[in-house]
Recover the amino acids of this structure.
């Protein structure tokens, strides 16, 4: 577990995040949040802002966070990740 992960489960991650004012909060990310991000936000090159589970910010750190969550869910609950991916119209290749 990384220093910024507060709590982890099979379907969620609670991660400590901060904003531009250095206000720290804990944000919960679910499998659905991550899949929705990759289905709708990941290919959006028209905006420098992306949203992951209600957390909006510059695309670089949000994208990095989404990839971290994806790798975590692939290792702990790949069946659910595949199921939710298909619901969003994605074809999982893992």
């Amino acid at each position: 577990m990384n220093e910024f992960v507060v709590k982890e489960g099979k379907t969620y991650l609670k991660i400590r995040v901060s904003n531009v004012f250095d206000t720290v909060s804990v944000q919960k990310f679910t499998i659905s949040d991550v899949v929705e991000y990759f289905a709708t936000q990941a290919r959006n090159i028209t905006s420098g802002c992306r949203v992951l589970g209600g957390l909006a910010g510059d695309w670089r750190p949000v994208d990095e966070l989404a990839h971290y969550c994806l790798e975590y869910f692939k290792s702990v609950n790949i069946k659910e990740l595949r199921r939710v991916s298909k619901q969003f119209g994605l074809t999982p290749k893992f």
